[in-house]
Amino acid sequence: MPSTAFHAPDTVEDAVALLSADPTARPLGGGTDLIVQMRSGRLSPGAVVDLKRIEGMSGVRRDDEGFVIGAATPCTALKADAALVAAWPGVVEAANLIGSVQVRNRATMAGNLCNASPAADSVPALVAAGAVCVVAGPSGLREVPVEAVPVAPGKTSLASGEFVAEIRLPAKPAGGGDAYLRSTPRTEMDIAVVGAGVSLVLDGEGTCTSARIALGAVGPTVVLVEEAGAALVGTKLDDDALAAMSKAVQAASNPIDDKRGTVSYRKAMAGVLARRAVLIAASRAGAKA
Amino acid sequence: MNAPETMKQFRPKGFRHVGTRPVRPDGVDKVTGKALYSPDFKAPGMLWGAILRSPHPHARIISIDTKKAEALVGVKAVATGRDLPTLESLVMHVGEGASDIVDVSHNCLALDKVLYEGHAVVAVAATSPEIAREALGLITVEYEELPFVLGVEEALAEGAPVLHDNVFTKGVEPKPEKPSNAAMRVEMGGGDVEGALASAAATVTERYTLEPVHQGYIEPHACVASWNGDGQAQIWTSSQGHFAVRSLTASVLAMPQSDIRVTPLEIGGGFGGKTTIYLEPVAMVLSRKSGRPVRLAMTREEVFRATGPAPGAVIDVRIGADAEGTLVAAEVEFLYHSGAYTANDAGAGVSSAIGHYRIANTRVVGTEVLCNRPAAKAYRAPGAPQVNFAVESAIDELAGKLGIDPLELRLKNAAAEGDPQTSGLPWGRIGWVECLEAARAHPHWSAPLGPNQGRGIAGGYWGNYGGPSTVNVSVAEDGTITVATGSPDIGGSRASMAIMAAEVLDVPYEQVRSVVADTASIGVSMVTGGSRTTFATGMATVQAAEDVKSILCQRAARMWGVSDDQVEWRSGAVVCLEGEKQGQSMTAAAIAGRSFHSGGPIAAVAALSAKGWLPGFGVHICDTEVDPETGHVKIVRYTAIQDVGTAIHPDYVEGQMQGGAAQGIGWALNEAYIYGKNGKLDNAGFLDYRMPVASDLPMIDTVMVEVPNPAHPYGVKGVGEVPIVPPLAAVANAIHGAIGQRLRDLPMVPDRVYAALHPEG
Amino acid sequence: MSKIHVSTTVNGDATEYLCEPTSSLLDVLRDTMGLTGSKEGCGSGDCGACTVVLDGEMVCSCLVLAAEAEGRTVATIEGVAEGSVLHPVQQKFLEHAALQCGFCTPGFIVAAKALLDRNPNPTETEVRYWLAGNLCRCTGYDKIVRAVLDAAAELRQERTPA
């Protein structure tokens, strides 16, 4: 049995060096996916590189463009940042649907993203919000849109030695609102059968000027449905617009039958949840417009 | 001494302890983390075991090569099915239901064939868990894969792979010529079902299905075994019955039972699933080979893949009533998943189907069907919830057709004392009608419903049991009392035993301490299962305490120099009624303090096989709210009503009712074994085997109806099994109330409810 | 495999241990330190029986590597009572018969205490959602939720000057 080394570097550079040295090495954020996969034998990394001792890797901070969320920031810590909650309540809520309180005290959005499950709760909300990852690697830092990170179930576009160091969210746009809803059989402790993240902007008249809608668990990766957003732009989110949006969502859904849900149910729920999420996002946009 | 089998009859009186709610004696250990459960126990020099399991649902074992594993540094022993003795078929009635010891042995370690994914094939013991796991990776097992079958109807179809070539359907005369997967068939009933259905004013003919579900105890199976060269052994394990562990393990290993001492550790839930053995003989063999104690412990995944679920079922019901709502005929035919070996649920299923109604013409047929799933095991009211779901759903459908209130239809036809059961034997003093009346009177039944809400009701029962228990009540030198039983305490039975002994002796509850003794320290006791412990072990406790009371009286009389009939036990002490010492009293402390000079230590053993148990009946009312757009079902209100005989410790009676209801709700809504097309279990973990979490449930209100059992000194009836029986149909009936659609297939997950709401797709 | 040396604080005591790089904190608590009050019900973070408080936040100790605990503080069920004096949550679990088999109980008590430490007046719904990561198969949660609400009431009374 190959042994696994454990490292807890202090700097991004050291972490990159450790990850580059062994292509099977894995970064450790909250560990709520990684440790489960190691225990079940699905994964035997040559090294585990704990990111939590690196300065700046935990916590939320503001910069000129918006919010910077360290890769090792646990989901529950997002709720403690009042400005983030006010700006992106949908993202914070999505991250705080993952697992249980115990899990969310460890689990991170970066880990949720890099686990590359199509059902990851925080990802549709991040994609809808237009979030960007800062990826650290052997050639320095690069920025990648969140939706470009997962490429297939369990697979990311990150190269050897790279890891997500930060997730950046823009400042809240004037008249903006976001929301995330998911369908699960249980109220908690469950994996999304379908998830829908919405971010939109309303002008002073209540007309939608932009909208991004992303879906989870209806394809091999989280999908950004541009047609669904487009169906809302220029409307006042009337019934016809919502119906067109739901139709676009369903058309973009290409789910599978599995232990968590059927194709027909997932397609139907994608439409229902997206519509409900749009209405919540709109009420948030309106309330703060 | 052996107590007489007929006990003193129930005597209603003002109880001092029975019906109070004291803190359980083992409580502090359990809230501080000190209590030792199976996975917590360590023996000096202990090795760590691990088990290699079959990746195939059905395969012949061609060869097993363990050489590389044995050569790994730190590996001390390797065992396969060849290390277990060859046994003659013998059906043993231990645990809950009967098991052929050959099947038990082959389930512990497969011999020639593996019968389900997860079937144990090779075991190793090593100096660390990591080495033991590494060793498993070095073992090569060559399999010849065989066709497999998972469904009960498929397993009975012509050409289906037959699991065992020596199983000829039991219960069929003459014995079938060919072996088949129909392991057992049970039939009961009488009268003219066809004629009565033909003339009925309304009939319901429907099929209902359920998937296998797991007992879901949070403590995985684990044990430590130490088997010495002289043949003597110790096993430390949690179980629902350490005597069952002893007898099954000794039988599998063909050794004398008295050579094994089983020490019961605290048990982290069982619900019927810990009435058998999986690990103990394997740990024993590894220990014998290595000369060291060996721990075997399952992971959660192993628990799901390799330990008994409750059977799933396909159930056909035909039931009819006349225009006034009198049930005239019922026919129930069901197939239960038996899994890899012959299980025991069909008989209980037949007895639990329609016996709660007075119906002149009945036919109930149950068949156990072998298939390539883990061997089905007892789960709370084994055999009853499945068939009850079908019957109590059909009764609701019939009420709808007749336009009669579903509670009134049940009450009109409810069986009472003296009415015949399905077997023809008369019911004893049952409280079914009282439960229905309590439901009708309960505010829940008439409370208004909100939008998208519906209300369902269902009733059910289970036979309960009595049987063998041994209890030793002893008096310490200071007069305090120890009650030692052979019954594992799963949910507060130490407290109930202490209450009953304190009641008999009329002493403070805290003066009585109750413990669970090992197999060498107390006589044989049947498992804690079948809702028998408070009844049967309680009866033995009362008997032994009565005997201790008699001894104390005799000793006092001797010390006073009076005859036995000149003294009496009053308020926890012996009082002299006549002579010079008239009016004097002597406490247990005073008597026991001088016991060494007045006849020796004071103790009494009651070893009895308790008779006179009565079945339990329950009625559950459930309100659901269904999201019409998503099919999500929320349980918004729930009331469980049950005839409990007499509640010895009402908190733990309510706890049984609430816990059983929650399990039943889980079974109704979300729980199911989900298999892939490859015959492998797809949801072997708590994430995708969705048991209810706290936020899924409301408070579960309880109503304890007390219709005392005349055969028990304190009126006890078993309470643990019944509460899982009614919830399945209660929830289904409530969903029907909310959406006007009938779901006949469990679990009623959101996509199924959605499909019922949107048949167009 | 070379073992890792870890210095940490468990229930207020400075502690050192050697662990495998892949060992969980739960493995070390149970097998190395003999603190078997934290239970392993699943090993995958789905049952909460192994709940401990790590640097002030409750976590599943089966999902923490033992090596991660270097320099941190860990609080387990064994440290909830003060000597022989039970914490109100423990006392209320006993009084309300909020346990049957007791296997999930340590995890529930650690989680419930963590809730009441930050929210002295939770609603029933808040209690249910906070405890949703702790599975109990015996009780149906009813008496657990009542015990936690009652413990909260008692703690509020204790904290209010007379």
Automatic annotation (TrEMBL), chain A:
<feature type="domain" description="FAD-binding PCMH-type">
    <location>
        <begin position="1"/>
        <end position="174"/>
    </location>
</feature>
<keyword id="KW-0274">FAD</keyword>
<dbReference type="Pfam" id="PF03450">
    <property type="entry name" value="CO_deh_flav_C"/>
</dbReference>
<dbReference type="InterPro" id="IPR016166">
    <property type="entry name" value="FAD-bd_PCMH"/>
</dbReference>
<dbReference type="InterPro" id="IPR016169">
    <property type="entry name" value="FAD-bd_PCMH_sub2"/>
</dbReference>
<dbReference type="InterPro" id="IPR005107">
    <property type="entry name" value="CO_DH_flav_C"/>
</dbReference>
<dbReference type="InterPro" id="IPR036318">
    <property type="entry name" value="FAD-bd_PCMH-like_sf"/>
</dbReference>
<protein>
    <submittedName>
        <fullName>Xanthine dehydrogenase family protein subunit M</fullName>
    </submittedName>
</protein>
<dbReference type="InterPro" id="IPR036683">
    <property type="entry name" value="CO_DH_flav_C_dom_sf"/>
</dbReference>
<dbReference type="InterPro" id="IPR016167">
    <property type="entry name" value="FAD-bd_PCMH_sub1"/>
</dbReference>
<dbReference type="Pfam" id="PF00941">
    <property type="entry name" value="FAD_binding_5"/>
</dbReference>
<dbReference type="InterPro" id="IPR002346">
    <property type="entry name" value="Mopterin_DH_FAD-bd"/>
</dbReference>
<keyword id="KW-0560">Oxidoreductase</keyword>
<keyword id="KW-0285">Flavoprotein</keyword>
<dbReference type="InterPro" id="IPR051312">
    <property type="entry name" value="Diverse_Substr_Oxidored"/>
</dbReference>
TrEMBL record, chain B:
<dbReference type="InterPro" id="IPR037165">
    <property type="entry name" value="AldOxase/xan_DH_Mopterin-bd_sf"/>
</dbReference>
<dbReference type="InterPro" id="IPR008274">
    <property type="entry name" value="AldOxase/xan_DH_MoCoBD1"/>
</dbReference>
<dbReference type="Pfam" id="PF20256">
    <property type="entry name" value="MoCoBD_2"/>
</dbReference>
<keyword id="KW-0500">Molybdenum</keyword>
<feature type="domain" description="Aldehyde oxidase/xanthine dehydrogenase a/b hammerhead">
    <location>
        <begin position="32"/>
        <end position="147"/>
    </location>
</feature>
<keyword id="KW-0560">Oxidoreductase</keyword>
<protein>
    <submittedName>
        <fullName>Xanthine dehydrogenase family protein molybdopterin-binding subunit</fullName>
    </submittedName>
</protein>
<dbReference type="InterPro" id="IPR036856">
    <property type="entry name" value="Ald_Oxase/Xan_DH_a/b_sf"/>
</dbReference>
<dbReference type="InterPro" id="IPR016208">
    <property type="entry name" value="Ald_Oxase/xanthine_DH-like"/>
</dbReference>
<dbReference type="InterPro" id="IPR000674">
    <property type="entry name" value="Ald_Oxase/Xan_DH_a/b"/>
</dbReference>
<dbReference type="Pfam" id="PF01315">
    <property type="entry name" value="Ald_Xan_dh_C"/>
</dbReference>
<dbReference type="Pfam" id="PF02738">
    <property type="entry name" value="MoCoBD_1"/>
</dbReference>
<dbReference type="InterPro" id="IPR046867">
    <property type="entry name" value="AldOxase/xan_DH_MoCoBD2"/>
</dbReference>
From TrEMBL, chain C:
<dbReference type="InterPro" id="IPR036884">
    <property type="entry name" value="2Fe-2S-bd_dom_sf"/>
</dbReference>
<dbReference type="InterPro" id="IPR012675">
    <property type="entry name" value="Beta-grasp_dom_sf"/>
</dbReference>
<keyword id="KW-0411">Iron-sulfur</keyword>
<dbReference type="InterPro" id="IPR006058">
    <property type="entry name" value="2Fe2S_fd_BS"/>
</dbReference>
<dbReference type="InterPro" id="IPR001041">
    <property type="entry name" value="2Fe-2S_ferredoxin-type"/>
</dbReference>
<keyword id="KW-0001">2Fe-2S</keyword>
<protein>
    <submittedName>
        <fullName>(2Fe-2S)-binding protein</fullName>
    </submittedName>
</protein>
<dbReference type="InterPro" id="IPR036010">
    <property type="entry name" value="2Fe-2S_ferredoxin-like_sf"/>
</dbReference>
<dbReference type="InterPro" id="IPR051452">
    <property type="entry name" value="Diverse_Oxidoreductases"/>
</dbReference>
<keyword id="KW-0408">Iron</keyword>
<feature type="domain" description="2Fe-2S ferredoxin-type">
    <location>
        <begin position="4"/>
        <end position="80"/>
    </location>
</feature>
<dbReference type="Pfam" id="PF00111">
    <property type="entry name" value="Fer2"/>
</dbReference>
<keyword id="KW-0479">Metal-binding</keyword>
<keyword id="KW-0560">Oxidoreductase</keyword>
<dbReference type="Pfam" id="PF01799">
    <property type="entry name" value="Fer2_2"/>
</dbReference>
